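Thread: Modeling a multi-component assembly for a lab meeting

Hi all, long-time lurker, first post. My supervisor asked me to bring a structural picture of a complex we are working on to next week's group meeting, and I have zero experience with this. I have the sequence lines for every component (916 residues in total). Could someone generate the structure of the whole assembly? Inputs are pasted exactly as I received them:
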Amino acid sequence: MEHYSMNLTLKIWKQKNAATRGAFETYQVKDISSEMSFLEMFDVLNEQLIHEGKDPIAFDHDCREGICGTCSMYINGRPHGPWQGTTTCQLHMRAFKDGDTIVVEPWRANAFPVIKDLVVDRSAFDRIIQAGGFISVNTGVSVDGNTIPVEKEKADKAFAAAACIGCGACVAACKNSSAMLFVSAKVAHLALLPQGNVERKGRVEGMVSQMDKEGFGACTFTEACEAVCPKEISVTNISRLNAEYAMAGLTTDKQHGS
Amino acid sequence: MLESKISPGPLEKKWTDYKGHCKLVNPANKRKLEIIVVGTGLAGASAAASLGELGYKVKAFCFQDSPRRAHSIAAQGGINAAKNYQNDGDSIYRLFYDTIKGGDYRSREGNVHRLAEVSVNIIDQCVAQGVPFAREYGGLLNNRSFGGTQVKRTFYAAGQTGQQLLIGAYQALERQVALGNVKMYSRHEMLDIVVIDGKARGIITRDLIDGKIERFFGHAVLLCSGGYGNVFYLSTNAMGSNTSAIWKAHKKGAYFANPCYTQIHPTCIPVTGEHQSKLTLMSESLRNDGRIWVPKKQNDTRKPNDIPEDERDYYLERKYPAYGNLVPRDVASRAAKERCDAGYGVGTTKQAVYLDFRYNLINKYGKAEASRLGIENPDEAKLVELGKEVVKEEYGNLFDMYEKITAENPYEVPMRIYPAVHYTMGGLWVDYELMSTIRGLYTLGEANFSDHGANRLGASALMQGLADGYFVLPYTIGNYLADEIATKPIPTTHEAFAVAEKGVIERINTLMNIKGKRTVESFHKRLGKIMWEKCGMARNAQGLQEAIREIQELKKEFWSDLRIPGGTDEMNPELDKAGRVADFIELGELMCIDALHRNESCGGHFREEYQTPDGEALRKDDEYMYVAAWEFKDEHKWELHKEELKYEEVKPTQRSYK
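Re: Modeling a multi-component assembly
Sure thing. I ran the full set together rather than chain by chain. Output:
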């Protein structure tokens, strides 16, 4: 593939902190190589801004290899930008051409308040996990791993759901800001495994209830979440969650509200 | 002489004996004891969760926005355990032996044997947590091979093993948060430790959202803050990975051991240009199925698929027939460098070799699938197609990642790879109980130095992180805290907290007030260049001496010409980075001093002056069979302390993988 360089116009959301109103600012960057990653282009811009005595743009990023789930940019109207199954950090500049204008915003959701510029607070996801996204085993299990065989097909499905990186793109893409894909991926991961069976009813009820408390919207199954998920988590997990939730509600021994 | 406090007795009984005799803390007293955990990767999250389960009051800190994002998450290939599920002759002893040998006889026998022992418990624990390891059709756990071994003992979850293990530990941690046993502080960076009467009693942190400086008390402090590979600027580490937590502890009195032992991983995506911000690893597990080669002709510009089989040099298979493509990382990295330096490199920069999957796509997976599906006489295209499906399942995400970065399809053309900084074997010196030279200050995982000697074998980092956090520290810390049950929580108004906090604030103000012209990034890049060129894959005395001078100059320039935008009472990533780079600069100097003092080659430390006639690392056991633990004295001044390494079980020999 031929490499090329490009000049770009960037319209980026700037917001000092949660208490201040934000607005778009326009920046120009020159000689961006098609081999750069999208975040390396941001590095170039920030170096330029610091040299000009301006404030650089705050954005979340860490591993830069698509697995930690930290990066979170809403690029040209799509979480993580134009490439299918790709995080912002793995998006490369060959996705763009000379003269393009690129619009970059933070995740937009009430449950993800903006901290600064493109950085948002996703701690709601941690609290949803606290509400049941685990198997209650203390350290020191002495049962040999191979005494719990798991059908390969189920193990593979559980793994596919567990591949969620918790980035929040699903919420950002959803017109209702629903967190159903995130929650369902965890519910499905654990419900598919025999180890997760004991707590499955309480888990799904606890996690869904916490999701509602955090202010995420309802799921109307537009499947926008799956379309933008960098790990291509399937919406069939949402169906599984709904089934788990219904079953838990019908068969639980616990009295609600007691 | 440093006392490692290795449990006495025969090797295979040391850990059992220790556990049988160490002091215990009763449940009522545990509730009165507070423990600080800095860092929430595999070591930190597993320790925090386990200590919370035991009933201690835990405070855990990470600089990321969630503990689930720690860099352990990026580990790809797998985790070793001596389960012998494959019936191929594995045992705790063999895992122990491979690790000692892989470390080029520069690690402690007692620690490594313990690591091999608890490796089996880790797998059981993780399975119980619901970690979705790869399985065979019969529902049992699958294994694959890694470098430096001749058995299949690596457990994995496609190319995302670190992610799955970390999510397991993270979920255990969040469960303890929900139960109120652990209080979690994310987006907090530790900026100093507080030592009172010779014991670690707390930390000073900065809230990365609003810049608030805070004081926290603990009866003990655990540093689980990972490795310092980012001292090289370009590495496979995450952008935020840093040395600052252990460096602050070092400057408060904790010895730093073997800082020069760095692991350069052989299979990473090559650098493309000056803009490069990090390097991406392609898992060692790919060497199971990929064959490494370069053209037999120098400066061959043909496309890889146009070079016929007999014009390819599978140099690892040629030089190391017994281990072939599965030699340990240090050996594979040096061999790649040697071929490229000799003019056989490929790609535009000529700093790359091929990692080629075609042979196994066809012959291993393609043929097996064809036979399984009963397809007779499949042609090559069919075999490739069938093989692809299996390879996708084994490594799918890695192939996708390669394509996203390079725009080349590794199913069709060989990957281009080159070595890159990946892991640091050095770290804070700890004894058998994982306690540093500051009492009550423990160091776990990559942040300590203890188990990998001069070279870590693949799939052993995850094993060590979880061993330390789940199965070692929860026992050893009791031996210390049993004598602390009468210690009341020390109010953070204590003078030692005030002094430490004042130091932190002054340093931040000093950094902000330099108001020079150069960015943090520019200094970091320059440091990285010095380190990579003079303290990287090959080192020599002259280069190291130059590097020390250059780093000292760089330090002066940093503290007089740095520019940090923004303020201190807001989110300011440039300020965060500046503090980390300032520490990296100091560490870089110490790494060069350590590399210069060690007049031998061992594992990842390769001094050009000390090599065998065929270019392998030449150890000098009579002079350097020790851990070099450095005590910070003053700026540019360290004192060397030695911990002699005693080999009772294994007889150190020249490592051979031929």
